[in-house]
Amino acid sequence: MRRDIASPLALWLLLVAAAAAQVQWDPPEGIAWRTGTIHSEGTRLAAEIFSLESNSGQRLPCLLMAHGWGGTARSLRRDAAAFARAGFLAVAFDYRGWGNSDPRVVLAAAGTPQATGKFEAEVIAIREVVDPVEQTRDWLNAMHWLQAEPMCDTSRIGIWGSSYSGGHVLYVAAHDKRVKAVFSQVGGMDSRFVVANGNQAARTLGEATRRARGELPYPEPGAVEVGSLRGAPIRDKLMHFAPVELARQASHAALVFVIAENEELFDNRGPCDQGTCGGYRRQEAGDPAGHRPLRHLPRGSPARAAARHRLVQGAPLRTRHRLPSRTAGTMGPCPSRARSSTRARSTLSPTGT
After folding, report:
1. CA–CA dist 169, 167 (Å, integer)
2. Can you tell me the distance from the alpha carbon of 181 to that of 250, in angstroms, rounded to the nearest whole number?
3. Exposed (0-12), middle (13-18) or buried (19+): which is 197, by Cβ within 10 Å?
4. Which residue in 108, 164, 233, 305 could disulfide with 188, CB within 3.0 to 4.6 Å?
5. Are 322 and 267 in contact (CB under 8 A)?
6. What is the distance between the alpha carbons of residues 163 and 340, in angstroms, rounded to a whole number?
7. Distance between CA 275 and CA 68 in Å, rounded?
8. Could you tell me which of 237, 308, 325, 201 has the C-alpha nearest to residue 273?
């Protein structure tokens, strides 16, 4: 059983070290890069902001980005710099407890609040666990933060997600109509694999009961339980998380889904095996290696060129692509049969076209 207890001094030293690591990066020539802080339910999230130096002071269409299961914002720097070079303001952030963001903390023992409401206590830092409820709250708070970012044209905000965050972006668009465009690649659209059968459900509900009674601590930071992905899930948070069911609530936004040809983690089979789903075409991308984000597609491939044209060049984005359901791979079967029916034009082009 793990109980990582941090004194205030040790926690402060940890945060200082994380902040030092964050600034040790030289952006590509011509790219302006700075850091920011987003406050999400009392936790500070680390953000990185990218733009062209020649666009300094201008209001730009904005792309909000976050990493997938087990990733960090550092891994998105190349993508964010490419979007900045295309004329966007790109903002990437770490979820709470990941990368350079502060952890969520829980008390190791009861404290005695003073009249001011403050008190000293030992705390347990919760780091590198996968909780889609907390992570999507971080997304929504990042959207709030953007509204006061001087270089962000708040009428032209798009969101970009890959792997597990490829499902998060659909959830965010369904709950925030300020989102004008969604780009989801190799996304995780349904987390109900944790209750897909009797054994899975028993484990999920059993862990929830033990944690509610104080008998089960949070997982070790970076524990591996799903494939080779870093970060153990809080399973009872996953069992109700199915962004695939919210597709129609995102009908105000332009949607693009890029699906791996031979997905290793998320099942893209199901009702659309023949390439059609109720009259809507699906877009498959990737290569036989499976669960790979767009940046790993071969240069010059039709899928990479099409996705870049739609998002970066500002061409119309239309959701005539099957919404991927989750999961026959390492995640288990999923009952969902939802699909997207939205047809929307992007207004996210740097030129406003």
Report:
1. 5
2. 10
3. exposed
4. 164
5. no
6. 18
7. 26
8. 325
Q: Please answer whether residues 58 and 150 qualify as being in contact, where contact means their C-beta atoms are separated by less than 8 angstroms.
A: no
Q: What angle do CA 317, 321, 326 make, to 5 degrees?
A: 125
| Global pTM value | 0.77
DSSP, residue by residue, 150-186 = TTEEEEEEEEEEETHHHHHHHHHHHH-TTEEEEEEES
Beta-carbon contacts of residue 349 (< 8 Å; ≥ 6 apart): 61, 313, 314
Q: Which tokens is 110 given?
A: 């009861």
For the stretch 299-348, pLDDT in tens is: 444 444 444 433 333 333 333 333 333 333 333 333 333 333 333 445 66
Q: Could you tell me which residues come within 8 angstroms of residue 276 by beta carbon, excluding any fewer than 6 positions away?
A: 282
For strand 152-162 and strand 60-66, is the pairing parallel, antiparallel, or unpaired? parallel
Encoded tokens for 95:
């979820």
Closest CA to 291 of 259, 338, 246: 259
